[in-house]
Automatic annotation (TrEMBL):
Keyword Lyase: yes
Name assigned to this protein: dTDP-glucose 4,6-dehydratase
Domain of life: Bacteria
Record-linked InterPro entries: Epimerase_deHydtase, NAD(P)-bd_dom_sf
Cited Gene3D superfamilies: NAD(P)-binding Rossmann-like Domain (3.40.50.720)
Amino acid sequence: MIEGKNIFITGGAGFIGSTLAGRLLQSNQVTVYDNLSRNSLKDKSFAEHPNLKLVQGDILDLEALSVAMQGADVVVHCAAIAGIDTVIKSPTQTMHVNMIGSANVLEAASKLNRVDRVVCFSTSEVFGQQAFRSSETDATVMGAVGEARWTYAVSKLAEEHLAVAYYKEKWLPTTVVRPFNVYGPGQVGEGAIQIFIKRAIANQPIQVHGDGSQIRAWCYVDDMVDAVLLCMGHPEAVGESFNIGNQRDVITIYGLANAIVRVLDSSSEISFVPKPWVDVELRIPDVEKAKRLLGFHAKIDLEEGIRRAAAFYRDQSQLAASE
């Protein structure tokens, strides 16, 4: 239980960051530092909570970041350029933000008088195109040089190495989490599951890239936040990296589209379109380390997660229609 702390969340207006902030606000002071390029926070019921402070800023601005971080007990670094479309559009910006921005966050945190924990978000993409029950000690894979997709994985892997280096060299109490396909209410930007759900609600056609045989393990956002909270407070988390996901909810992308149509009783038709980029064909985590050291296990199954996310998007749609 995290109580009475000053929590600083970079990218805290984003999907996972804002969900995390909502879980912490009742018993802590939370500062969200975000450039608001993707703003899920504005749709949250707690957006005006008295314990929440929003600072609009960029992690590439070390001075502003350092000032905003003063007084933090726990730092959670969620800010990044992510999403395959966004990454491919600007690989240079992706690497600048994810590498230099992460270096700025770690450097600013290391200058604090005292910090209990620094949790850095990496990605399951560091395992490359084929990742079956990958554990934290498995070899990471950097795809072909010049293939824009892998700039995201490379930049996040650099962040991981830097976070561990700050722990080993400067005793900064860092922890790294590698999310595996997180979804749920408040997801903004890209992501197959939220796009499929929104289209299914509207009975619109659903497009699957490629032949739909790509395999994923899907993790509901509340389970992801549970893991982050454990990483923020558990003594065993310091200096470690953790795969976070739900290895039981494994399904192909085509199977996912069909499941969403079925669960939501939608009349959406499913079609296939060419993949304009290199894709990850198989991504399933081994979460034994998080279970063993932190006591983490995912609780929300895929069908329940689909229903919860759909309820959120329906409410959003009705609210927008009434305005």
